[in-house]
Amino acid sequence: MRNLKATDALLTPSNVLLNAHCHCKIADFGLARSVTQIDEGNGETASDPTLTDYVATRWYRAPEILVHKGIDMWSLGCILGEMLLEKPLFPGSSTINQVERIMATLPLLTREDLISVSAGYATHLLEKTQNALRRSLKNLLPEVPEKTLNLISNLIVFNPNHRLTTVEALEHPYVADFHRRSNEPERSSNVVPLLRLGLQLSVVEYRNKLYSMMDEKHRKHKNMWVNTFI
């Protein structure tokens, strides 16, 4: 996904599948978004695919969920922390409580941090939460090795521009023994949904669109086979 310009938007422990050989797959792309389309959206039209705070499960939401940047990497940090702590890092009971729990753990925000998420009205809430009693990730995960804590600390970063990218995370010493560039194929094209996100259709219209796309794909494959033997 790292080079397809797509975001899962629902990355939680239950959507990370692991088999006996430690082969990992991501499941449930029902709320996935094309970052290409998000970048092109202006946030004003009904078809704009920008994420809302209802997209990701609250406990794994990145603070900037409204503007889409790097949210899967934040979720990855939460999942890794949960695996080590054996319980969620930020089990917020509401959106506000979720923000309070996150802010109480992260370093004090700078003006650059606030600007990075384009928080708008929420900026006031974020500034208020900085006065709460604080505890660091190290205190939250006291028995975690330094190398592991370093990875989590660089994933759970408020400012998405300072958060590790997927490529940087793969180069981190914590996963060095498992990182094999030859086993990590990349795709040159971006993922763009065939139907515009936010498009409202009836059940019949969705069904007809699906049949039409399946028929077109079938005809393309058929023509490829025919041309191969001509």
TrEMBL record:
The keyword ATP-binding applies. It comes from Melipona quadrifasciata. SUPFAM superfamilies: Protein kinase-like (PK-like). Keywords: ATP-binding, Kinase, Nucleotide-binding, Serine/threonine-protein kinase, Transferase. This is Putative serine/threonine-protein kinase C05D10.2. The keyword ATP-binding applies. One of its GO terms (molecular function) is protein serine/threonine kinase activity. InterPro entries: Kinase-like_dom_sf, MAPK, Prot_kinase_dom. It holds the Pfam family Pkinase. Residues 1-175 form the Protein kinase domain.
